[in-house]
């Protein structure tokens, strides 16, 4: 279980009138106008904010949004403020810029109200982990709560430096993320099935190494399947693959065999002339990928094989889509896998931003036992890596 101080163990009576800085992750998808087109991470943070509001704290919420280069308007958190005002009972104030205005508005904040700060990445001190900026943020509050699990692998000022200057603890969401992933690794009910998609084998070597020791079955999809196809001697046409990772793919398959872990690769795939919605597609065997076409999704035979493994598993962990799901024509495999997992009897856990988007777009999030708000942080924690955000908060003595 979590060894860090947690809000769940902190006396509610000590919160009234306190200024509480919540480092949240409100980095949900937006369109070109900056309008939210997803709200999974915001919704996941609401229980912590609501608890603090109910306890009579003055709640200061800070988050990043996207990767702004020049304070682009679309990355402003003003639309998050609109969302919170519309979809929560909280009284929410918003500071549109960094500077003296922050402290001026904070002076007017009443117990049980929320002050949402502007995008942290609009300030140059955030990503550079500037200590003076961290001190400024810390000066706003009496207590620090880390609730941005999706950013826990970042060494940014609001994540690793603010805790140096304030009593610090984890929020409800981050505590749940840690406990769920730890239980998954240490106490997974067998058979344990790991479904892995995405682009690069090289990004997930450590994850393979750890889960080859834990899982009984691994089903692979996404572009990384093409690297395994090359390792097996098959051609992949115009598809992306990692030439430098072919040896790694061979080693993974060999290690799986030694460990008694079954690895399934797509038997058939959808191929396309171009990576676009209006293109010619067809299903082919993995042995017959045309030289002028791209692999863009798994095929129906592969889905049926994977579905059988899903239905026989007691624990299912899914990370990474099965194809280029962003293009509707290539999303069938990912959505079908999502539905099959949702309908299965096993414990169902999903992690990764792209995978969560598949569930969100299919309205299947509620059918999973846990959908992690973390992408890179989720993978790093699964690998057994230390996350900077957690290292910044002292263990319970």
From TrEMBL:
Cell compartment(s), UniProt = Cytoplasm
UniProt binding sites for substrate: 25-27, 41, 64-67, 121, 154
Cross-referenced InterPro entries: Phosphoglycerate_kinase, Phosphoglycerate_kinase_N, Phosphoglycerate_kinase_sf
What enzyme class is recorded for this protein? transferase
Residues recorded as binding (2R)-3-phosphoglycerate, renumbered to this chain, are: 41, 121, 154
Pathway it acts in?
A: Carbohydrate degradation; glycolysis; pyruvate from D-glyceraldehyde 3-phosphate: step 2/5
UniProt binding sites for ATP: 204, 326, 352-355
Q: Where this protein primarily resides, as one coarse class?
A: cytoplasm
* Keywords, ordered alphabetically: ATP-binding, Cytoplasm, Glycolysis, Kinase, Nucleotide-binding, Transferase
| Single Gene Ontology BP annotation | glycolytic process
- Please provide, in alphabetical order, the Gene Ontology terms of the cellular component aspect for this entry: cytosol
The record lists the catalysed reaction(s) as:
(2R)-3-phosphoglycerate + ATP = (2R)-3-phospho-glyceroyl phosphate + ADP
Checking Pfam families in the record gives:
PGK
User: Which HAMAP family is this protein grouped with?
Assistant: Phosphoglyc_kinase
Describe, as the record does, how this protein assembles with itself and its partners: Monomer.
Q: Which family does it belong to?
A: Belongs to the phosphoglycerate kinase family.
Protein's name according to its UniProt entry: Phosphoglycerate kinase
Q: Which organism is it from?
A: Thermodesulfovibrio autotrophicus
């Amino acid at each position: 279980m979590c060894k860090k101080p947690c809000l769940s163990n902190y006396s509610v009576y000590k919160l009234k009138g306190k200024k509480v800085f919540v480092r949240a992750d409100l980095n949900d998808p937006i369109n070109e106008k900056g309008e939210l087109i997803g709200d999974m991470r915001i919704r996941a943070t609401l229980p912590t904010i609501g608890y603090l509001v109910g306890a009579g704290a003055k709640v200061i919420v800070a988050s990043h949004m996207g990767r702004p280069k020049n304070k682009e308007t679309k990355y402003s958190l003003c639309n998050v403020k609109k969302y919170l005002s519309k979809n929560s009972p909280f009284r929410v104030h918003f500071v549109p810029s960094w500077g003296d205005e922050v402290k001026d508005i904070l002076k007017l904040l009443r117990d049980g109200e929320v002050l949402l700060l502007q995008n942290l990445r609009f300030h140059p001190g955030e990503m550079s982990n500037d200590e003076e900026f961290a001190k400024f943020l810390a000066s706003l509050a009496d207590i620090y709560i880390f609730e941005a699990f999706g950013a826990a692998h970042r060494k940014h000022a609001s994540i690793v430096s603010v805790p140096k200057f304030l009593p610090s603890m984890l929020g409800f969401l981050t505590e749940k993320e840690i406990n769920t992933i730890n239980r998954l690794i240490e106490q997974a009910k067998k058979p344990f099935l790991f479904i892995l998609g995405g682009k690069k084998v090289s990004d997930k070597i450590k994850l393979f190494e750890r889960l080859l020791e834990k899982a009984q079955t691994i089903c692979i999809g996404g572009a990384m399947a093409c690297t395994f196809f090359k390792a097996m001697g098959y051609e992949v046409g115009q598809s992306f693959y990692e030439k430098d990772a072919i040896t790694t793919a061979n080693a993974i398959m060999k290690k799986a065999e030694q460990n008694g872990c079954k690895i399934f690769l797509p038997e058939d795939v959808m191929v396309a002339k171009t990576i676009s919605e209006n293109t010619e597609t067809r299903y082919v065997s993995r042995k017959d990928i045309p030289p002028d076409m791209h692999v863009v999704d798994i095929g129906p035979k592969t889905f049926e094989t994977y579905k059988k493994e899903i239905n026989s598993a007691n624990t299912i962990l899914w990370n990474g889509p099965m194809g280029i799901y962003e293009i509707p024509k290539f999303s069938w495999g990912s959505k079908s896998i999502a539905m099959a997992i949702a309908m299965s009897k096993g414990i169902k856990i999903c992690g990764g931003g792209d995978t969560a988007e598949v569930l969100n777009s299919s309205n299947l999030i509620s059918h999973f036992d846990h959908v992690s708000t973390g992408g890179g942080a989720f993978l790093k924690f699964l690998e057994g890596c230390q996350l900077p955000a957690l290292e910044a908060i002292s263990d319970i003595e």
